[in-house]
Amino acid sequence: MKPEKVKRHFQKWAGDYDSLHREKIIPGFHDFYRTVTRMVPFEKNARINILELGTGTGTLTEMVLSSYPRAQLTGIDLTDEMLLQAEEKLKRFKNRFILMRGDFSAITLNSNFDAVISSLSIHHLTPDSKKKLYKKIYKYLKKGGVFINADMVKSESQSIHALYMKLWKGFMRAGKVDEGYMKRRFEGVKKVDIYDTAEDQLVWLKKAGFEDVDVFWKYWNFAIFGGFKK
Ligand SMILES: C[S@@+](CC[C@H](N)C(=O)[O-])C[C@H]1O[C@@H](n2cnc3c(N)ncnc32)[C@H](O)[C@@H]1O
Predict the structure, then answer these.
(1) Which domain holds residue 214?
(2) How many whole angstroms from 182 Cα to the centroid of ligand 1?
(3) Which of 55, 89, 145, 158 could be bridged to 77 by S-S, CB 3.0 to 4.6 A?
(4) Ligand 1 centre from 57 Cα, in Å?
(5) Region class of 144: left (phi > 0), else alpha (psi between -120 and 50), else beta
(6) 149 with 214: CB under 8 angstroms?
């Protein structure tokens, strides 16, 4: 997917993003984000260095910086309008984070990280770009480091995928999510989302060098998966 197209999509959504009651849009919202922080294999007080791909408005960033009070975080995102909200939300963490604007699939960083995390961002890349990114992430990690991706996936079975999409719509309707929003959301999905199965992505992670790869959590078409650098 062209980064410009993804950026335009999020420029349009940025203003509404945090006011959308995301717990009514993402099934298992709190577990979804909390599981990412729980899978970071370090003591609470460890001085760890974290890279976040697709920081957006800083939802996961805030949880991670709260859970690991001595962690430093570098966040990357394409969209200024999303990053401006993250800056505001993360103010209280002062010198513990740096936010960079850029395309995480195009830039190369020199630093080494203990953990690379991402939520709802990598699914905008094509399968080839995902494979390349996973190789890059492996290089960014120190030995003992972890990559955790909380993202949207498809199922190998088309009928199960269709069922999940139906259940997802039902979940939003039960939460009284605005029908106009849902229509726009599903049109947007078609334009900028590229779903791959978790199973394929575990294979790509192994090929990139990761060990102990697994799906750590799953709820319909939302999954958290990743692996370790040993
Ligand atoms: C659905 S939002 C998720 C934001 C946040 N991680 C969360 O869970 O709320 C996706 C974010 O990823 C960013 N993004 C998508 N593709 C990107 C890329 N190739 N490089 C950097 N940021 C990207 C978008 O700008 C957007 O802010």
Answers:
(1) 3-228
(2) 19
(3) 55
(4) 9
(5) left
(6) no
Name residue 46's amino acid.
A
Pocket test for ligand 1, best of 6, 7, 52, 64 (most atoms within 8 A of CB): 6
Supply 217's token pair.
Answer: 């959590």
Find the CATH number of the domain harbouring 102.
3.40.50.150
Q: How far apart are CA 137 and CA 14, in angstroms?
A: 27
Give me the tens of pLDDT residue by residue for the chain, a chain 230 residues long. Answer: 788 899 998 898 888 778 777 899 999 999 999 999 999 999 999 999 999 999 999 999 999 999 999 999 999 999 999 999 999 999 999 999 999 999 999 999 988 999 999 999 999 999 999 999 999 999 999 999 999 999 999 999 999 999 999 999 999 999 999 898 888 877 777 789 999 999 999 999 999 999 999 999 999 999 999 999 99
Model pTM? Answer: 0.96
Query: What is the amino acid identity at position 6?
Result: V
Q: Which residue has its alpha carbon closest to ligand 1 atom 19?
A: 103
Number of domains in the chain: 1
